[in-house]
Structure formats: C-alpha cells, structure tokens
C-alpha cells in the first residue's frame, strides 16, 4: 500500500500549522529574535480525510441499495515534475471506497481497474465516475492514449466495487477528461465531460486532437469561454448516442461566460445533480480554485451561473460530487491535507445546505475561530 509517510501524517491532526500548507511561504530563514515573523495562524479543517492508507482525489459518490460508494482517483507519488498541464498526476489504477453511512467506517476496496488492463490507454488514469443500469455497474475513466490524447473509456462489472472489465476501445468520439454520468428520472443517461489546460478541451475544437494546440484555453478573453460537453449515452451505456454538445453557462445578462472570467468560467470537474426539478451543473474554475454551479431547466442547459459551492481548499485542485442520502445533501471533495502536496490528495465529505430559493450555501473548507 502507498501509506503516507509518518512525517506527512503529522499534518493530519485536527489543528494544523500553516507550515503544512502548500500555499503558505516558508518561514524566513535566519531571522533574529527581534525580527521573528508574526506567529503563524492556525487553520482547522472543516472535515477530515475519508482514508489515509492511500492518497485519493476526484471523489464521485453514488448511493446504491442504501450504501455509499465513492469512485476516486488514486494519487501516487510519481517522479514527473509538476507542470501546468498536470503531468504530475500519474495515476495508474482505481480503488473504490464504500461506507454504510456518512461518518461511519470506510472500506478501501482492492484495485478495481489498472491501466495495464486497458489496451488503448497509456497513462494518467484521471477522475472517474460510475453508473448502474439493471444489474451492471459501469466505470467511466479518462486516460491518455498512446498518442498523448485524453480519451474516455468504460469498464463493466457485476459488483459496484469491481473488478471491472474494460472495453478494448475508448468511447467513440470521446476526448478530454473528467466524465460525470447522470441518469434522469426518465431513465435517460448523460455524460458531462471536459477540462481545459491539461484536460485538452482547447486541443479538440475541430473534432480531431491537435497535439500542437494551445496549452491553456482559446486565448481569447473577450470571447465565450470553452464549454464542458454533454452527450446522451446509448441504452447499453457503452457509447455516445449523439455528438457531444456544449454545456453553455450564462451570466446575469444571459450572455455566455467569457474566457477571461476565470472566477466563473468552466475549467474541469463536471457534476450534475437535480434538486426540486432543476438541473444543477457544478464544476471547478481551476486556476481560481472554486467549485461553482449553474442552474438550468434541461440536462442540456443552458445553465445560469448561480454562485460558489466551495471556497479554495489546501492544494491547487479540488473536484467534487454532490449526492442526497436520507434527505440530507453531501459534498464530496478533496484537498492536500495529508501530504501538503497538490499531487497527493485526500477525499473528504461535508454536508451541503440550500437556501429557500434553491441556491446553495457557500462552504468554507476551513473553520475560523
Ligand atoms: O486528478 C487529476 C485531475 O485533477 C482531474 O481529472 C481534475 O479534475 C483535477 O482534479
């Protein structure tokens, strides 16, 4: 097992010194007694990691037969230096978590799928999601193919915790990262997906992957931002039933969010849930580190920007899911509490609350005295 070193676990006590944070600068070296920097503020995390035996991120939670299953990425301590395209996220397999109730003991299941089992995949098994139809469970996952292009694969199992058997080819017409699968009340299932920068959405604007395309986005701040994608799945859940469409997010004037609006525009980490008959599309703003959401009347949108769900966590990324359990709503997310390193994350859960008008109360991942 990839157990975090004791040195790092020392950072996981309830109250942590800011020195454990990757966003705090180190204390000034060699300051004399009367030049000591001010005492560092202490920070208290809102919630604690669900598991510490391995590093986990990107938690997609589902409730099946009364039990909670979490499908996370499995972070590993690789050797690739950090870069803006996420080359340091070198994940190779998936392990699933389960629990009978939130707050109860968490079971860490054995490897459910390894990159070596997937004929088309080369590396970087990033954020997955799962679905169930009849008696089959489906694991959806992005990975880079042998040409360095992200594609989305699917694997099946008769058990929610695997092992999963991958299809020999990625989903036809799939590209980019972060699949999130939502089944509506009418039984139709949709996949939301995509991510800019390392997620390569900007290199897939013509229908063919352009390895020499922009490293970041469209590089047009005054134009509509790149959108997440949505496609209905076929009845067997294995392919797209249609060409992916744009998930358009509108501002307060019903205009699409612009590429320069980094506090609100889509970056990665799509999730869809339904509340009181409305469709809530939520996502990460990436370089501004927020989890935000937009509300629509159809699974295809358009969606109107509605606010922040989660303020920035410790670490560069976070990625979430939202589920209802016994009438209460829960936000699963991740931070870097255990390691202090962005590449080695840990998943968490906290309760999510709505206002009477259907907006979501913003969550601060830290508790302030
Ligand atoms: O875990 C790798 C990538 O980082 C995910 O696919 C993104 O959502 C971000 O969390």
UniProtKB/TrEMBL annotation:
InterPro entries: Glyco_hydro_43, Glyco_hydro_beta-prop_sf, Glycosyl_Hydrlase_43_Enz. GO terms for molecular function: hydrolase activity, hydrolyzing O-glycosyl compounds. One of its GO terms (biological process) is xylan catabolic process. Residues 1-18 form the signal peptide. The record marks 178 as: Important for catalytic activity, responsible for pKa modulation of the active site Glu and correct orientation of both the proton donor and substrate. Keywords: Carbohydrate metabolism, Glycosidase, Hydrolase, Polysaccharide degradation, Signal, Xylan degradation. Belongs to the glycosyl hydrolase 43 family. This is Alpha-N-arabinofuranosidase. It comes from Steroidobacter agaridevorans. The lineage of its organism: Bacteria, Pseudomonadati, Pseudomonadota, Gammaproteobacteria, Steroidobacterales.
């Amino acid at each position: 097992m990839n157990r975090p070193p004791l040195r790092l676990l020392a950072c996981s006590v309830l109250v942590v010194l800011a020195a454990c944070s990757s966003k705090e600068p180190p204390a000034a070296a060699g300051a004399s007694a009367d030049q000591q920097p001010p005492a560092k503020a202490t920070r208290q995390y809102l919630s604690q990691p669900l598991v510490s035996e391995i590093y986990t991120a990107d938690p997609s939670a589902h409730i099946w037969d009364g039990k909670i299953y979490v499908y996370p990425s499995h972070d590993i301590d690789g050797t690739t230096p950090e870069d803006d395209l996420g080359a340091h996220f070198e994940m190779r397999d998936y392990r699933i978590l389960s629990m009978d109730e939130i707050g109860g003991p968490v079971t860490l299941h054995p490897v459910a799928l390894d990159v070596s089992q997937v004929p088309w995949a080369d590396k970087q098994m990033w954020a997955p999601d799962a679905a169930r139809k009849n008696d089959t469970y489906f694991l959806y996952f992005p990975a880079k193919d042998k040409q360095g292009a992200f594609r989305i694969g699917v694997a099946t199992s008769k058990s929610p915790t695997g092992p999963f058997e991958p299809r020999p080819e990625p989903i036809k017409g799939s590209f980019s990262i972060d699949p999130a699968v939502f089944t509506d009340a009418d039984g139709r299932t949709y996949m939301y997906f995509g991510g800019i920068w390392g997620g390569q959405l900007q290199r897939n604007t013509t229908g063919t992957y352009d390895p020499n395309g922009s490293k970041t986005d469209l590089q047009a701040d005054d134009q509509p931002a790149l959108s997440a994608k949505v496609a209905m799945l076929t009845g067997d859940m294995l392919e797209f039933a249609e060409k992916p469409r744009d998930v358009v997010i509108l501002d307060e004037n019903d205009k699409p969010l612009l590429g320069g609006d980094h506090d609100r525009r889509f970056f990665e980490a799509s999730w869809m849930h339904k509340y009181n008959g409305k469709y809530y599309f939520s996502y990460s703003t990436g370089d501004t580190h927020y989890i935000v959401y937009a509300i629509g009347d159809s699974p295809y949108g358009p969606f109107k920007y509605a606010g922040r769900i989660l303020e920035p966590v410790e670490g560069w990324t976070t990625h979430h899911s939202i589920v209802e359990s016994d009438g209460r709503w829960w936000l699963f997310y991740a931070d870097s509490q255990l390691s202090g390193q962005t590449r080695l994350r840990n998943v968490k859960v906290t309760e999510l609350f709505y206002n009477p008008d259907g907006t979501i109360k913003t969550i601060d991942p830290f508790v302030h005295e």
